[in-house]
């Protein structure tokens, strides 16, 4: 049995993908017989400031264990520049604590559009260097982060730990059939996500082409932000857009399985850190996604259909091929589920971090 102190910037009920992932991880570790405490802003006096660090240090003194940080640099307080927090973790490691860091994101990029963020980019690289050099183990959610972190510390303790699906993988068949029945046999295209600015921009360019090429198809939008996105893109064909508002993970999983094709475009390309992609892949339904600068080699032989990011017409070509060919849909969906089970399933994640 291990004892875990998980430090996370968010946690359910009101959270994004990192919080959902943390809850999934904590539940699985507990089910494996470990003791888990999750430290997050809702359970602490501040956002990982001095008072919070004192609370966590006292808990570690009473109940030592592995410190596992779910790291997103902009979400740990001090406006994304919490250097004292990183130094505190380094001191814990030097004192003998098993401090591990999971990089969900490494740091801001440099850019000209918002030059004030370049100061953040510099500070966050310093923070990453402190953590990479001091942590017992370093995990990252995509192979692309290994390349970005390489200049800031040794790679010997770094391991890629892809994100599993944060919604259920096993779904009752009758729940799926009830959703299918609502659409009376129309081809059903689905998307699951949070509809953030970058992904929704890519998706908004695809939707009109998709409706033009597949005039009988309906589009099912699931996830937080679906209703707002539908109001932006639905003017031309509101009757063909359906928002699945149920926040329950099992209900969302059933909705994805009811779809003929799932569309998951990303402007920087699909990566192993995308929880929405893992949910789609685990559904066993065929997925169309995008390749881009961050896309890892694992997707080159994966059970997905891909088009280059920023090429909506080519993306819709792939959707149309699957929507009009049932045998192809079944084959791609089965390969995708096999890839998920072999490379991304939660059991593999738990086995690796409990080694």
In short:
This protein has 13 helices and twelve strands. It has helices spanning 17-31, 50-62, 83-94, 117-134, 143-149, 173-181, 197-213, 226-233, 249-257, 275-282, 312-323, 326-344, 346-353; strands at residues 3-7, 35-39, 66-71, 99-103, 137-140, 158-160, 188-192, 218-222, 241-244, 261-264, 287-291, 305-308.
Give a structural overview:
- With 355 residues, this protein is an alpha/beta fold.
- It has two domains: 3-161, Glycogen Phosphorylase B (Rossmann fold); 173-344, 3-Layer(aba) Sandwich (Rossmann fold).
- Helices cover 44% and strands 15% of the residues.
- It is built from 13 helices and twelve strands.
- α1 links the parallel β1 and β2 (35-39).
- α3 (83-94) runs parallel beside α4 and α7 packs across α11 (312-323).
Tell me the name of the CATH homologous superfamily of the largest domain. Answer: Glycogen Phosphorylase B
Low-confidence residue ranges: none
Query: Helices and strands: which structural class?
Result: alpha/beta
Number of helices: 13
CATH topology of the largest domain: Rossmann fold
Give a short account of the largest sheet.
6 strands, parallel
What is the beta-strand fraction? 15-25%
Q: What is the oligomeric state here?
A: single chain
Radius of gyration: 21 Å
Global geometry? globular
CATH class of the largest domain: Alpha Beta
Biggest sheet: strands side by side, in what order?
2-1-3-4-5-6
How widely separated are the two ends? 11 Å
Number of domains: 2
Helix content: 40-55%
Q: What is the strand tally? A: 12
CATH architecture of the largest domain: 3-Layer(aba) Sandwich
Arithmetic mean pLDDT: 92
SSE succession: EHEHEHEHEHEHEHEHEHEHEEHHH
